[in-house]
Design a protein that fits this description.
single chain, alpha+beta, three-stranded antiparallel beta sheet, 4 helices, 13% strand
Length: 86
């Protein structure tokens, strides 16, 4: 499973936006993704920011506030200025 697929699964189960540290904790606890890196939360965050920058409005994810991500199909207000800057 890719890190972004793992993030999607965690956010879908949570049904609410989560901070990248909590997303990473749940991914690793549930064995959805493995890493030998020293800063897995930084890797997860970088992947999410890269996905948003690359895919823009077509991304599965949205940025709700700094380092807090949700799924695009949720109705939670987003921090629009950050999403537009990506």
């Amino acid at each position: 499973m890719t890190v972004l697929d793992a993030v999607y699964q965690v956010l879908e189960e949570a049904a609410q936006p989560l901070h990248v540290n909590e997303i990473t904790r749940r991914i690793l606890t549930n064995g959805l993704w493995k890493t030998s890196g020293k800063t897995p939360a930084a890797t997860v965050g970088a992947e999410l920011y890269s996905d948003l920058k690359k895919h823009g409005g077509a991304s599965r994810f949205i940025l709700h506030s700094p380092q807090t991500f949700g799924l695009k199909d949720t109705n939670t207000p987003v921090l629009n200025s950050l999403n537009q800057d990506l």
